[in-house]
Amino acid sequence: MIPNGQSAVIERTAPDLSALQEQIQQLQAQVDALRAQSPENRLSMVVFSGDLDRVLAAFVIASGAAASGMEVSMFFTFWGLTALRQKRESRGKTLFQKLMGWMTPVGSRGLGVSKMNFGGIGAKMLRTMMRQQGVPQLEEMAQMARDLGVRIVACQMSMDVMGIHKDELIDGIEVGGVATFLGDATKSKATLFI
Question: Per-residue pLDDT for 1 more than 60?
Fold first, then answer.
């Protein structure tokens, strides 16, 4: 049996305890809501450039992020798509799409550098200097990124405009639209445009 004095104290503190528990539940709900809104350990990037040095930088960053445990997605659009092409196909394309296909490089070996390309000499020099320093080539970096689970997405709209068919791309490339990119980017800690 509880003595009268203690019983009165318990009766006075019971509402305070109930209010405190309610505040704790409200705070927990706020913390849960904030947690749901916070970005995931993820990196998203748009690869717009078709320059060797820029595409290389994109794959270096993607591989580094994936190796550190981040989920990574790369969204290749317009000129960036040239790095993903493995062959040139003319069948079923408009005249402009055929011309675009012939004027743009096929694959990473055909990419020039963004500065001082000089008809492809700049790209050859860069590749030679990378080899001399033991730096992996773009093709090795791209494979490393894929081996680390980097998601590589080709922009469907850009493919349609430029007349690039899925069978012209290297194997294992996902095709998606801007909603695919935004779905990843809205959950990412960092979003890059290269």
Answer: no
Is residue 137 within 8 Å of 130, Cβ to Cβ?
yes
- Angle value at C-alpha 137, between 131 and 143, nearest 5 degrees: 150
- Determine the 3-state secondary structure of 163 from DSSP: coil
Question: Can you tell me whether residue 155 is helix, strand or coil?
Answer: strand
Residue 32: CA count within 13 A, CB half-sphere? 6
Identify whether the C-beta of residue 118 lies closer than 8 Å to the C-beta of residue 111: no
Q: Which CATH superfamily is domain 40-193 in?
A: DsrEFH-like (3.40.1260.10)
Distance between CA atoms of residues 90 and 35, nearest Å: 50
Give the start-end residues of each E strand in the chain. 40-47, 71-76, 151-155, 174-176, 188-193
**pTM (predicted TM-score):** 0.79
Query: How far is Cα 153 from Cα 149, in angstroms, rounded to an integer?
Result: 12
Which helix (H) or strand (E) is 4 found in, with range?
A: helix 4-37
| pLDDT digits 0-9 by tens, 81-117 | 999 999 988 888 999 999 999 999 998 999 999 999 8
Q: Which of 168, 160, 140, 172 is nearest to 74 (CA)?
A: 172
Question: For 46-90, what is each residue's pLDDT tens digit?
Answer: 999 999 999 999 999 999 999 999 999 999 999 999 999 999 888
Rounded-to-integer distance, Cα 188 and Cα 61, Å: 15
